[in-house]
Amino acid sequence: MSFFVSSRISDWNLRPVREMVEQQLRLAKIPSSSAEANVDDATPADTASQEGVEIAVYCLSPLSADAAKQLAMQYGVTSVSAFWNEVDAGGYTFLASRPLDLEWMVSRWNAAGRLGTYAEVIQAAVANRLLEKNPGYIEAGVVLSSDELHRGAEIVAAACVFSGMAYVRVELGVSQSGALAPAEVLPDWRPDAIPRLLGSAIFDEATYGRVKFHHRAVRVSRCLLDKAAA
Fold first, then answer.
1. Is 148 domain-assigned?
2. Overall domain count for the chain
3. What confidence tens digit (pLDDT) does each residue in 28-62 have?
4. How far is CA 159 from the centre of its chain?
5. pLDDT for 81-108, tens place per residue?
6. 164: enclosing H helix or E strand
7. Same-domain status, 32 and 95
8. How far is CA 189 from the centre of its chain?
9. Residues 91, 69: one domain?
10. Exposure on the CB side of residue 68, measured as CA atoms within 13 A
11. Enclosing domain of residue 85
12. DSSP run (H or E) holding 168
């Protein structure tokens, strides 16, 4: 029997998290004297000791160039070689290595025959990550317009840059040191709209009750900040 525990690598690198998993995933070791006993008669008292489970850590890698090209062809890209030349020349491989980003990049390429300038591509990445569908929010009836999502992201990005706080609280009304309180910078937003914004793909998945902009946060935040200050 195998157990798979999924988490972000930044969480797994925290010693308390690893120790908790090691403590919780322990197998009961039945004493040999009871090996011939009826299994139905076994009780917790019969398990004299426990042994740890060997843990193997695996990390999902981004798409390789070859894998990204193959997936781009599945998405229907026209001239995969020309497409990838622009991806490579523009420094967009960090986006193309993510399947969901690669999909809109192919659509953009097929429509215009080009990806655009770095600023244009980053703006497109922000737009698409904000609009990635989340069934949970759709079912709950929390649907925000593109303008609302963009404006909210701009305000939060500016607040993160000026405050020096990389993290944003997910749980409203819960105090957390070192994390930005989104309700304070989005006072006019209704309570159910803020989690929708923080649940968009521009942010990493929530951990310890907080989120932060994706690993390209510096570029995205600066892009949003420049727009907010304009």
1. yes
2. 3
3. 555 555 444 454 544 444 444 566 667 777 777 88
4. 21
5. 999 999 999 999 989 998 989 999 999 9
6. none
7. no
8. 23
9. yes
10. 26
11. 65-116
12. strand 167-169
